[in-house]
């Protein structure tokens, strides 16, 4: 699929927002788990009498860590492969320098023969 080239500032905003949302989401997860515990506390305690908020929060964190490990094991390699491919396709100063050096190296090799 052909991609559309738009100014770099749009990507910069998207990257910065994505990076910032990490901090917001940590706070949000704690608040949401507290809200869920408050709303469902009686039902949870009825099913698991020894449950408390800290155990509930710990189980939530264990679930989050499990998701992170699955993402790292299966999704991260394919995501990085895709990002590497994208970096080679678009205006990338490092790739431009590499291609320039490759041409110069080819010229040096030809001159040596």
Provide a compact summary of the structure.
The chain has helices at 8-47, 53-89, 93-112. It has 113 residues and is mainly α.
How would you portray this structure in words?
This protein is mainly α and 113 residues long. It has helices at residues 8-47, 53-89, 93-112. The longest helix is centred in the first third of the chain and has 40 residues, at 8-47. The mean pLDDT is 88.
Helices and strands, with pairings:
Layout: H1 8-47, H2 53-89, H3 93-112
User: Regions with pLDDT < 50 over 5+ consecutive residues?
Assistant: none
Strand content: under 5%
H and E order: HHH
**Mean model confidence by pLDDT:** 88
Identify the overall geometry.
Answer: elongated
What are the defining features of this structure?
0% strand; mainly alpha; 113 residues
